[in-house]
């Protein structure tokens, strides 16, 4: 039992008083007796109070209803009626809460719930109890029961429908978006006044004019939703009900029943139309707002993503610039061997720990950017040239050496700042010498300038990482094709980057294969490659023809890097037919391998992209047989310093020709191991495809309708099923089912003369369908076989169908495969 | 690989044991039935049909077994069928619902013992 506090008591009293007032007002509208009214406002009030403030306020309603009824009935009837008047709104509030009713009534389902659950269903309670009380107290004759019940029910329902939305509208005024500004107040007032005049005018003239009101109410509902609909409904219903109860206007001419019926129908229509329309508009507004929010959100994300891309691009640009500088520097000293270069930058120092004097070799001064002997050296002076964080590491290194009395100090990589501000990276090695007593007396050190090497390693790593990131991680699976690819970055020099390959699954089972090479190397080539790859991908996915794709790539290259050129080959493969449409743009010719061996595809000589603006590229169509392969590659595979280009091409062809039956994965592996130089100076990209043999063809078999043929059929079908990878269990059952169908045909379809049975089987998704067809006339079974054959088929292939026609019998059996099916 | 079945019949202690190997279908079921019936003398207690070596069995074979069971039955001779668990023949007998009609054993030994027990019980 919830605790009842003072606030609750106050609320109960307030509710009771309001209920009493509303009831007194309602009774003024009574048209039958003194207590049956076509509109009973307090019910709506009670429902709203229970919905918003909880059903525990029920005593207010109960007491007030009792006090209202007592003077117009006797004690028992008043008690019963009050009970009904309390229970009905309690039930309504409970049902609406269960149905997820929103008090803003801004969804159609809220309107439906209010009308169905709140008004029609719940008010049957008060009507039943109230009418029964009248009956029991003999104030009502039995044959008047249903009439009175209907009126009571309609009155309470109208109280819910007319009053509750208005109160809810007022109470939720500030919880509804959008807020209504004062700006719209004049419009609202004008429309409501118009509605009031129209109502009065219609009611006091002829009934036909009532049809003027729904459009007006609808208009208000459409403009203001619930905040217009609720007052409008209350206004119109009150005016109409008042007119009827005062017997004014044209209503007065009707009989009592007609009055009631017309009034209730009119009020119900107005209310339902208004609230339905207002909820519809609210819903639509909300949907539009959600859409707007989603669009804003998307736009925001696009903006954010764009700025990220711009940032990434700038970062890439900076790296490219840095790398160029490093490359230029390396080129300046290209003639020197790397070792000699490093030797030339070897400096020596000696530190006499007793006197504290430090001696530098001439080279060490030069490494630091000074003339030899430019100033006398001390330890403190020396470490001054080292940036703070590296200095701390050096000092820690020394401290450890002194503490542990180690002869060899660990190598240390550190930076120095030259007088012109340039940073150099040095590698220091040092050794400590001790006297007989074990105290350190002297340190000797060698310092090597490794700036170039560090830069080189870093740049190479970046380019290679970028390249790998831009290439497809996994090749897609393409029905009817086997694919394999390799990418080997250059191992020496700044040459990593620029080569690419791609596999693009297209509509209709086709696939686009791309290989390309952006001239130049390193980060810039890698980034151009990345953009070209995406462009080709996009155009291919949009369904462009191969030649158009290459022409578009040409245009894109001009935009992203006007001074770059690239070679590429694009091939669109249709695995089912074996048709390959190839466009070459200055790229080494593809190799085709079939049963006859390997050959170069003869493509027209066309310029690389980025060279000849507006060149109309031509495609070549070749047909490849099942089992044939096409190998695309970049020039790293054939272009070697020590051999001529022709010789490289000959070697590649010879290597590809060795074993035409090799799978593509092996082709890639062998070509790389045969041809790639041990220290590749250029990237190598390799993409190979094979058109797979279609093994999964349908099984077709014809047998003579003789028992001796059954074994032959079983072996043939079993072999086919194994061939397409059906598991043993499934295959055995399918063979048995098929054999049963064939046995039936052999036994029943034909007379003793010759006949044939056709068997067809095919795989269909994860199932196998077997069709057994004979061309005889089915007749009832000879002898007794107890239907064992059919029973077996049904057990083995549950979806069996038998069609018997004039021309023969067709048995179709289908079995879903249980086991995994390998292709 | 011929599908032709072979039937090896031996008698021991009044029980006829027929080992069938190969495939049983419409083309040879009648033949096998005749061979089996010929192999069961009137004084035999019963027949054990060993399907362990049968690589294929369909409804023709099932019919054959049912018929044999019937014909031996009214001569008060026992039919027992040996079909090892998880064998192809056993699966067919199960699907065809003969498991509940025929007496099925896993081994020839078990079948032979059952024939003796059955006749002792009579």
- Biggest interchain interface, per-side counts: A-B, 22 and 19 residues
Spell the H/E element sequence of chain B. EEHEHEHEH
Query: According to CATH, what is the class of chain B?
Result: Alpha Beta
Helix count of chain A? 23
- Beta strands of chain A, count: 20
Low-confidence stretches of chain B: none
Secondary structure category of chain B: alpha/beta
| Biggest sheet, spatial arrangement of strands of chain A | 2-1-5-4-3
Description:
The complex is a heterodimer of chains A (823) and B (122). Chain A contains 23 helices and 20 strands. Chain A is an alpha+beta fold and 823 residues long. Chain A folds into four domains: 6-288, no CATH class; 338-449, Beta-Lactamase (2-Layer Sandwich), CATH 3.30.450.20; 471-691, 4-Layer Sandwich (Phosphatase 2c, domain 1), CATH 3.60.40; 699-816, 2-Layer Sandwich (Heat Shock Protein 90). In chain A, helix 2 (41-53) crosses helix 7. Chain B is 39% helix and 30% strand. Chain B has four helices and five strands. Chain B has a five-stranded mixed β-sheet, with helices on both faces. In chain B, strand 4 (78-82), helix 3 (88-95) and strand 5 form a beta-alpha-beta unit. The N and C termini of chain B lie far apart (45 Å). The A-B interface holds A 706-708, 710-711, 714-715, 732, 736, 739-740, 743, 746-747, 785-786, 788-789, 791-792, 795-796 and B 1, 3, 23, 25-28, 56, 58-60, 62-63, 66, 88, 92, 95-97.
């Amino acid at each position: 039992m919830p605790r009842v506090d003072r606030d609750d008591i106050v609320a109960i009293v307030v509710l009771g008083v309001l209920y009493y007032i509303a009831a007194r007002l309602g009774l003024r509208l009574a048209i039958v007796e003194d207590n049956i009214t076509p509109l009973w406002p307090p019910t709506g009030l009670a429902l709203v109070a229970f919905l918003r403030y909880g059903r525990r306020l029920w005593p207010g309603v109960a007491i007030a209803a009792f006090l209202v009824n007592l003077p117009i009935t006797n004690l028992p009837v008043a008690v019963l009626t009050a009970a009904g008047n309390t229970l009905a709104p309690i039930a309504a509030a409970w049902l609406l809460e269960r149905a997820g009713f929103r008090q803003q009534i801004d969804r159609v389902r809220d309107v439906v719930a209010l009308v169905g659950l709140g008004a029609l269903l719940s008010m049957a309670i008060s009507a039943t109890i109230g009418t029964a009380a009248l009956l029991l107290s003999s104030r009502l004759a039995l044959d008047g029961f249903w009439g009175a019940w209907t009126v009571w029910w309609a009155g309470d329902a109208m109280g819910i429908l007319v009053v509750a939305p208005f109160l809810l509208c007022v109470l939720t005024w500030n919880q509804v978006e959008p807020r209504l500004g004062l700006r719209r107040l004049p419009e609202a007032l004008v429309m409501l006044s118009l509605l009031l005049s129209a109502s009065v005018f219609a009611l006091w003239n002829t009934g036909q004019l009532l049809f003027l009101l729904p459009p007006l109410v609808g208009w208000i509902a459409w403009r203001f939703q619930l905040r217009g609909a609720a007052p409008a409904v209350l206004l119109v219903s009150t005016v109409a009900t008042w007119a009827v109860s005062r017997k004014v206007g044209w209503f007065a001419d009707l009989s009592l029943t007609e009055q009631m019926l017309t009034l209730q129908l009119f009020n119900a229509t107005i209310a339902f139309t208004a609230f339905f329309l207002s909820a519809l508009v609210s819903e639509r507004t909300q949907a539009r707002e959600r859409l707007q929010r989603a669009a804003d959100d998307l736009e925001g994300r696009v903006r954010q993503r764009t700025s990220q891309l711009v940032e990434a691009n700038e970062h890439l640009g900076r790296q490219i610039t840095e790398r160029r500088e490093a490359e230029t520097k390396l080129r300046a000293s290209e003639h020197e061997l790397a070792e000699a270069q490093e030797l030339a930058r070897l400096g020596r120092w000696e530190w006499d720990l007793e006197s504290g004097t430090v001696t530098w070799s001439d080279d060490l001064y030069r490494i630091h950017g000074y003339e030899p002997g430019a100033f006398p050296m001390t330890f403190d002076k020396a470490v001054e040239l080292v940036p703070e964080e590296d200095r701390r590491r050096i000092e820690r290194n020394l401290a450890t050496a002194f503490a542990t009395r180690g002869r060899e100090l660990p190598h240390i990589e550190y930076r120095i700042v030259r007088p012109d501000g340039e940073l150099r990276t040095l590698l220091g090695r040092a050794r400590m010498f001790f006297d007989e007593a074990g105290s350190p007396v002297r340190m000797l050190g060698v310092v090597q300038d490794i700036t170039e090497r560090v830069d080189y390693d870093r740049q190479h790593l970046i380019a290679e990482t970028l390249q790998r990131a831009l290439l497809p991680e996994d090749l897609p699976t393409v029905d009817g094709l086997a694919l394999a690819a390799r990418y080997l970055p250059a191992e020496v020099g700044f040459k990593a980057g620029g080569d690419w390959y791609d596999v693009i699954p297209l509509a209709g089972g086709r696939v686009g294969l791309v290989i390309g090479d952006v001239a130049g190397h390193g980060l810039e080539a890698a980034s151009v490659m990345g953009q070209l790859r995406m462009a080709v991908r996009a155009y291919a996915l949009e369904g462009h023809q191969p030649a158009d794709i290459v022409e578009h790539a040409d245009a894109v290259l001009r935009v992203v890097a006007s001074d770059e050129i690239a070679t590429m080959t694009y091939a669109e493969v249709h695995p089912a037919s074996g048709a390959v449409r190839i466009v070459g743009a200055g790229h080494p010719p593809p190799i085709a391998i079939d049963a006859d061996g390997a050959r170069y595809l003869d493509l027209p000589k066309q310029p690389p992209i980025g060279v000849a603006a507006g060149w109309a590229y031509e495609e070549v169509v070749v047909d490849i047989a099942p089992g044939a392969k096409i190998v695309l590659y970049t020039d790293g595979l054939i272009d070697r310093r020590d051999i001529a280009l022709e010789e490289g091409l000959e070697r590649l062809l010879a290597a590809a020709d060795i074993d035409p039956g090799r799978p593509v994965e092996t082709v890639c592996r062998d070509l790389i191991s045969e041809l790639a130089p041990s220290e590749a100076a250029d990237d190598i990209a390799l993409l190979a495809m094979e058109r797979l043999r279609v093994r999964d063809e349908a099984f077709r078999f014809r047998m003579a309708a003789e028992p001796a043929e059954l074994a032959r059929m079983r072996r043939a079908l079993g072999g086919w099923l194994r061939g397409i990878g059906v598991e043993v269990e499934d295959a055995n059952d399918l063979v048995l089912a098929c054999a049963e169908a064939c046995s039936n045909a052999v036994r029943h379809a034909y007379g003793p003369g010759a006949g044939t049975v056709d068997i067809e089987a095919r795989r269909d998704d994860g199932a196998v369908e077997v069709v057994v067809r004979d061309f005889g006339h089915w007749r009832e079974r000879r002898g007794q076989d107890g239907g064992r054959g059919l029973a077996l088929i049904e057990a083995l292939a549950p979806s069996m169908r038998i069609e018997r026609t004039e021309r023969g019998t067709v048995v179709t059996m289908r079995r879903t495969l249980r086991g995994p099916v390998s292709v | 690989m011929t599908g032709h079945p072979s039937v090896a019949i031996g008698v021991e202690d009044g029980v006829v044991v027929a080992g069938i190997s190969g495939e049983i279908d419409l083309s040879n079921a009648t033949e096998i039935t005749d061979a089996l019936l010929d192999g069961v003398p009137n004084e035999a207690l019963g027949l054990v049909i060993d399907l362990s070596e049968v690589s294929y069995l369909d409804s023709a074979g099932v019919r054959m077994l049912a018929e044999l069971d019937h014909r031996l039955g009214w001569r008060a001779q026992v039919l027992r069928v040996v079909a090892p668990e998880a064998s192809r023949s056993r699966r067919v007998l199960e699907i065809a619902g003969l498991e509940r009609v025929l007496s099925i054993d896993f081994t020839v030994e078990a079948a032979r013992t059952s024939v003796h027990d059955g006749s002792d019980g009579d």
